[in-house]
Write a structure and sequence with these properties.
InterPro entries: TIR_dom (IPR000157), Toll_tir_struct_dom_sf (IPR035897)
Number of helices: 14
Organism: Candidatus Frankia alpina
Largest sheet: 5 strands, parallel
Helix content: 25-40%
Pfam families: TIR_2
Strand order of the largest sheet: 10-9-11-12-13
Order of helices and strands: EHHEEHEEEHEEHHHHHEHEHEHHEEH
Protein name: Toll/interleukin-1 receptor domain-containing protein
Shape: elongated
Number of domains: 2
Radius of gyration: 22 Å
Keywords: Receptor
Length: about 425
């Protein structure tokens, strides 16, 4: 995992980083989330409504603007029993195991996710053997390790406890065990939602994973003395997170915005896809006016389809947004060059970017085109011809490198 790093992040950013593209528009989990739009959910096995776990992912106001020092670092990203090789001599297992299939490896993952996912992956194969009372006891034990797990199979009780202890011992070495424990309910929530939407999960077990996610949401809200049944007003408090942009009118829930997406109407689905993955990576994204929500997952290899529906326009002009937001990303395509570049609004906005306001401009190229003049000289992230996984990795990695100063950043000439 490397040395402990604890950037301050808000709750939706912590959850999105763990969910990745699993809740992207059009995904199975996104469709399941659409069935639970309110602040609470009713789940089998509970005698009262519980906080809706999807609400904590969607709405920063639901967690009342809580920001947490969040353990991030190197992690496997998909830890389960088939990805762990151990030697045949059991006595050497703890020192000589190997992890395989590193396709989801990342250097800035939320570190509480991997051990939590390992436990839930084992539980997904074990629930069929558990009685209703044992299923309830498992949720209770996952959320409170001090409870007696004697009702569970002994191996399962020990397994849950040993995985938890291993993570806490690592955090305790840095004197940060309480911060680790504070973060665990959010990883339980994210991993439970992952299992809830996973195709391999048995239909009769999906409700249990939603129940676990809702109980984890309740535990987190109770831990921070937040109302479990109402939506709090978003706060504008900013406490040292990786997001350092200003609070912009029309921004996401009134929180600091890092990135403005400028795009054509024809590329709204691309912009939604780009914005989703940047949000999952911890950025706060401000879409341009009239950015439509496609309602479906976007495959970069597909041709764009007409947009359906739409959102209410923002109350901030493009020029004002460019002047206030640290990063402006242009979704570059022939449609952008013909529809947006050179328009009166565009001409008003982009001279402001070169007038000393500090905006950093990057083009995200999604189709072959030749941008004219200075627009062709700024920093560019090229996604043309890439698969969805390659495009996501290229976008997130390149933007992280630019943010961290590992690449040049283009600005229009002054």
């Amino acid at each position: 995992a490397g040395p402990p790093r604890l950037p301050s992040m808000d709750v939706p950013a912590i959850l999105r980083r763990q969910l990745g593209d699993r809740l992207a528009p059009g995904s199975p989990l996104h469709r399941l989330a659409a069935a639970h739009p309110g602040p609470t959910v009713t789940v089998e096995g509970e005698d009262h409504p519980l906080p809706n776990p999807f609400a904590l992912v969607r709405d920063a106001g639901r967690s009342a603007g809580v920001w947490l020092p969040t353990f991030v670092g190197r992690a496997h990203g998909d830890l389960h029993v088939e990805n762990i090789l151990i030697p045949t001599a059991w006595k050497d297992a703890s020192a000589a195991f190997q992890l395989i299939d590193l396709s989801r490896y990342t250097a800035d993952a939320v570190l509480t996710r991997d051990p939590t996912h390992l436990v839930l992956h084992v539980l997904a194969r074990t629930l069929v053997e558990l009685s209703p009372n044992q299923r309830t006891a498992t949720i209770d034990l996952l959320l409170d390790p001090n409870l007696d797990g004697a009702i569970l199979p002994q191996w399962l009780w020990l397994f849950i406890g040993q995985v938890r202890s291993a993570g806490e011992e690592w955090a305790r070495a840095a004197g940060l065990v309480e911060q680790w424990r504070d973060q665990l309910p959010l990883s339980l929530l994210a991993c439970a939602l992952t299992c809830y939407g996973r195709a391999s999960t048995r239909e009769e077990d999906r409700g249990w994973f939603l129940r676990l996610a809702a109980n984890a949401a309740a535990a987190f809200l109770d831990q921070h003395s937040l109302d479990q049944h109402s939506v709090a007003e978003p706060t504008q408090k900013h406490s040292g997170s990786e997001q350092t942009g200003p609070v912009v009118a029309g921004g996401a829930d009134g929180f600091p915005v890092d990135v403005l997406l400028s795009h054509s109407r024809a590329d709204a689905r691309w912009a939604s896809w780009i914005g989703w993955h940047l949000e999952a990576a911890g950025w706060h994204v401000l879409p341009c006016p009239d950015l439509d929500d496609p309602g479906e997952r976007f495959d970069p290899d597909e041709s764009p389809r007409p947009d359906e529906g739409g959102e209410q326009g923002m109350t901030i002009s493009l020029a004002d947004a460019v002047a206030q937001v640290p990063w402006t990303l242009v979704v570059l395509s022939p449609a952008y060059l013909s529809e947006v570049a050179g328009s009166a609004e565009w001409q008003e906005a982009f001279p402001a970017a070169g007038a000393g306001c500090g905006t950093r401009l990057v083009t995200i190229r999604i189709e072959h085109c030749d941008p004219p003049g200075w627009l062709g000289l700024v920093e560019s992230v090229d996604l043309v011809g890439l698969s969805e996984d390659e495009a996501r990795a290229t976008l997130v990695d390149r933007m992280a490198a630019l943010r961290d100063g590992d690449g040049k950043v283009g600005l229009p000439p002054r």
